[in-house]
């Protein structure tokens, strides 16, 4: 039998995860903002948000995602009751195409985001009661 290896050419590589969270926000909730040395994306699962990225402002509806690059000051306010996924990560590769990128997420990608949050809930201790102290710690019961 002959086997042929097929090389992969990754566009970018995620090296570290800082945060994977699902937040249920009340109407008028305001996150005053932050700046940090890693990438972050914010996906609106339900409701809508007003997002600030440095001087730019974006209005995101359910099904939309925004990317924040390292050292970009970003904040948001919930227009009404909203559910959001926040993922923060370090990565290597040409990430320029994601700078302040706002786009609609297709059904397959929404399912992937849901699976990512579910997997994180199985693997890491829950810390939403103190979101200012994000420290993913693997659970002793985390699946292999």
What is the strand and helix layout of this fold?
Blueprint: E1 13-25, E2 30-34, E3 39-46, E4 48-53, E5 56-61, E6 64-68, E7 74-78, E8 82-92, E9 102-104, H1 107-123
Antiparallel strand pairs: 1-8, 2-7, 3-6, 3-8, 4-5, 4-7, 6-9
Quick gist of this model?
With 144 residues, the chain is mainly β.
Fold and architecture overview:
- This protein has 144 residues and is mainly β.
- It has one helix and nine strands; from the N terminus they run E-E-E-E-E-E-E-E-E-H.
- Strand 4 and strand 5 form a beta hairpin.
- The longest helix has 17 residues, at 107-123.
- The mean pLDDT is 90.
Q: Compute the average pLDDT.
A: 90
Could you say which overall geometry the principal axes of the C-alpha atoms support?
globular
Percent of residues in helices: 10-25%
Strand content: 35-45%
Oligomer: single chain
Could you tell me how far the N terminus lies from the C terminus, measured between alpha carbons in angstroms? 32 Å
Number of helices: 1
Main sheet strand line-up: 1-8-3-6-9
Tags for this model:
five-stranded antiparallel β-sheet; four-stranded antiparallel β-sheet; mainly beta; 144 residues
């Amino acid at each position: 039998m002959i086997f042929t290896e097929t090389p992969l050419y990754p566009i970018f590589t995620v090296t570290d995860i800082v945060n994977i969270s699902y937040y249920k926000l009340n109407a008028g909730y305001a996150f005053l903002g932050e700046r940090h040395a890693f990438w972050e994306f914010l996906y609106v699962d339900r409701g809508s948000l007003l997002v600030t990225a440095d001087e730019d402002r974006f209005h995101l509806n359910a099904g939309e995602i925004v990317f924040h690059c390292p050292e970009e000051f970003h904040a948001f306010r919930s227009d009404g009751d909203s559910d959001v996924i926040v993922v923060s990560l370090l990565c290597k590769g040409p990430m320029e195409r994601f700078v302040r990128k706002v786009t609609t997420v297709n059904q397959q990608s929404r399912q992937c985001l849901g699976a990512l949050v579910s997997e994180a809930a199985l693997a890491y201790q829950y810390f939403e009661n103190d979101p200012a102290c994000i420290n993913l710690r693997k659970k002793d019961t985390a699946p292999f």
